[in-house]
Fold:
Amino acid sequence: MRFVIKWPDRRDYNLEEQFNVLTIGDGLVTMNPTSKGPLRFVNQFERKIGGAELNFAIGASRLGLSSKWISRLGNDEFGKMIFNYSRGEGIDVSDVVLVDGYPTPLNFKEIRGDGSGKTFYYRSNSPILTLGAEEFNEAMFHEIDVLHLSGVFLSVMKDNYSLIEKIIELAQKNDVIISFDPNIRLKMWEIEEAKPFYRKIFPYIDILLSGMNEIKLIANIESKDDIASFSEEYNIRDVVIKMGSKGSMMYRDKEWTEMAAHEVHVVDTVGAGDGFDAGYIYGFLHDYKPRELLNFSNGVGAIVTTVSGDNEGLPYLNEVNALINKEKILER
Structure:
């Protein structure tokens, strides 16, 4: 069963230059516990929607970018819920297909009394496995400015690297900028299994958006000098390091830029990295200077942490500007 939606060109009613982003990956239902403790003793859960790439697509759309998401969902109630939710967020879901015989992926979260937690994934036999390289064509990349890929997608599709190659080939053919977040999921694959896939991706990346611990794991990096060498070896334009409460830093044109985090009351850090990515791509496409770019991205990530859930806290543009300009939004 396939839904095809014709979306209006936002440039028809937006005087600001419109940019288009594309991402590919799983969507899943996240079950958040309503009480703390080992999962076996939890009796009630709150249903949410998640997935790194879907979070990015939502974040980009809320900031005002035209956002397209390619995915496969189970032709079940959860799949229909995710499809409708994504469409309601203004995401182009014309290449999202509901597939019979494959369940929509789930994950369950466990939260202990000290605030620590675990995530239990149930995403084997994911419907995204039905996505084949032959289904990708140049029309999907028409007028796309940035393709955003994630290591989560790689971990699910590791047995079909030809698909990744096809996506990258089409992006390059259409002069599309490629951004990549390693988003390591060690419950999905071992680090030694993941490294070869990352090494294949690095030469094609224009923007790398990583945590420090991640880049250490996947590239054996220990210092800023190592990051600089890594950037120059693979000719990556921007290497961006997300440091959470310590802010962020980036290496571009042989220079480092660092920016402190915004002070907020943190409730839940899930999805903050995906929000940062969306903020960075927004600022990059709008030609923000390095310090302005990091400050804006930090602001998006910070706001996400003030709300519980994977993407509920992803902000709109006016909310980010209010935070970074230390303004208050008046509600009347």
About this structure: The first strand starts at residue 20 and ends at 24. The two ends are 44 Å apart (CA to CA). The chain has a mean pLDDT of 89. The chain is about 35% helix and 20% strand.
